[in-house]
């Protein structure tokens, strides 16, 4: 059975939090703080490290607080970026996706 693009994106319907996104992924950091870790984005949470929360806090929260985007739009864009971009998801590609989806410059 092939999973269509539509089926993949419907996994973002009803997403209300970063936890909801993380819960869709099994993630084990094979290289904690190792080489090759920083140029990629992991969807999912490994122990206490939550990369999507870090991206939200450091890249998107200021746009939410200035009302350029809503929290819901930010969360949905994070979910779609996780679904749309091929794993391993390059950090630059991830930020470009978010910028385009949200019409902001990251």
What's this model, at a glance?
This protein is mainly alpha-helical. The chain is built from five helices and four strands; from the N terminus they run ααβββααβα.
- Supply Rg: 14 Å
Largest sheet, described in full?
A: 2 strands, antiparallel
Low-confidence stretches: none
- For the biggest β-sheet, the strand order reads 1-4
Elements, N to C (H/E): HHEEEHHEH
Number of E-state strands = 4
Strand content: 5-15%
Structural class: mainly alpha
Number of domains: 1
Name the overall outline.
Answer: globular
Number of helices: 5
Write the layout of secondary structure elements.
Layout (H helix, E strand, L loop, with lengths): L4 H6 L7 H5 L17 E2 L3 E2 L2 E2 H15 L5 H14 L4 E2 H12 L4
Antiparallel strand pairs: 1-4, 2-3
Question: How would you portray this structure in words?
Answer:
This protein is mainly α and 106 residues long. It is built from five helices and four strands; from the N terminus they run H-H-E-E-E-H-H-E-H. 49% of the residues lie in helices and 8% in strands. Strands 1-4 form a two-stranded antiparallel ribbon. A two-stranded antiparallel ribbon has the order 2-3. Strand 2 and strand 3 form a beta hairpin. The radius of gyration is 14 Å and the shape is globular. The mean pLDDT is 85.
